[in-house]
Amino acid sequence: MTSFKSGLFGAAAIALSAIALSPAILTGAALADTPKDSLVMAWQFDDIVGLDPAEIFEFSGAEYGAQVYDRLINIDPKDVSKIGGEVAESWTVSPDGKVFTFKIRDGIKFHSGNPLTAEDAAYSLRRAVKLNKGPAFILGQFGLTAENVDQMVKATDPRTLVFTTEQVYAPTFVLNCLTAGVASVVDSKLVQSKEKDGDFGSAWLRLNSAGSGPFQLKQWKASELLTLDANPNYWRGAPGLKRVLIRHIAEPATQRLLLEKGDVDVARNLKPEQFEPLKANSAVRLVQAPKGTLWYVGLNQKNPALAKPEVREAMKHLVDYEGMAKTIMNGQATIHQTFLPDGFLGALNDTPYRYDPAKAKELLAKAGYPNGFTVTLDMRNTTPTQDMAQAIQASAAAGGVKIEIIPGDGKQVLTKYRARSHDMIIYQWGADYQDPHTNAETFAANPDNSDGAKSKPLTWRNAWDIPELTKKTNAAVVESDGAKRAAIYQDLQRSVLADSPFVIMFQQIEVVAERANLTGMVWGPSFDSNVYWKAVKK
Q1: What is the DSSP string of 395-419?
Q2: Whole-model pTM above 0.70?
């Protein structure tokens, strides 16, 4: 991995590096404009744990992966019901519905110069299953295991990949899963050359890249810096800009000031009160991108108080949905209380819960807590999470629930959550692929609630043991009739809405502020459909 040198990126890199070292940005001192051939972005990306596409399972990491790797197939960001080829130019499905044969596009090269073949695609899928990191379950749900994946996923020649499932699923479900980041194609020769002690090159790939996408990794410093260089030989055409420099800027006020001064081209984490002043600035534009991402509070059922049904219901009446929607989330989200986002098959828009501390007190008394109780709430120390957590702390206090907020960076909070050692947590969930099963299997299924479970969906993280809902979720994914399948998902949503440890609050609208001279950025329906390679500057 090449080390970062500020001179490589010109004055903008020096200016951004100075933010942590000097108060100049706060005193109005002039900084140089960004280079004409570079994209400079201010963003909060402290949730990145590593850069291996077989491990990436966070919003920021998924967006990184979309710039560096090509996937087997992908969705149309303007119409998620349409699936198109990426590395695969075409595919067929066998009459029995279990064998998917992909024809791999000819002429694609990795950043290393190695040609991309069907064997690279097969190796990438097999590698993800054998590593068994966070996103591996997406492939594992088709019956792929470390023991059988070599037989289930094969390259029969340099241009043909054969993918076999253990049973019949709706073809759109299988294809949607293969649009996920875990299906990114890695350079098998390069990765295998970096393997140590049977780790499939994972230690190396967590800090390096081995893709064929429009950009390649230059450097990543956790919670500080991410730099990418353009791939001039990208098969779709060279990116419009030569490099991307992303700095982790935690303060929205600093992001806005950098944007207005022209020291960054994009600001990603502004607050709603900053939108109106920016609308009057002709040098800046605001872009809204509805996302299939939900904001929710998880209630760990290992906590005896939170495990009581009346307490779960009470907590859903201790959130001021409308108040937060009009202030903290103004323009950045819509109230949404079911686990399927708008636009998904079977999605419901039921919103039965309102802020009602009196009702919450009644429910708490029935549960044996007439004087309330004290609980902790873990949160990622970013915008708007901080403001939301404080608002929930205040609204819950009116019902007698005292919340102690525990802030942390993205990696800290996520690690604790994945160990299910929290009480409550406020977090986001984004769809891994454009099929309702992606959310149903994490909000409405938990095949094994033991601490040593292999599958660890959000239900497991919050210790919610639901064998009957798990059976319904498994039935939905194999239902071939679209109307019947939608009806099952609607029943599942009603059950989760009524009884789950999830206080689902909002569906996200990403609001991005761009300099007016920047065009071509694609802000899609998910973070891994945000892409930079078409961006240019006037």
Answers
A1: HHHTTTEEEEEEEE-HHHHHHHHHT
A2: yes
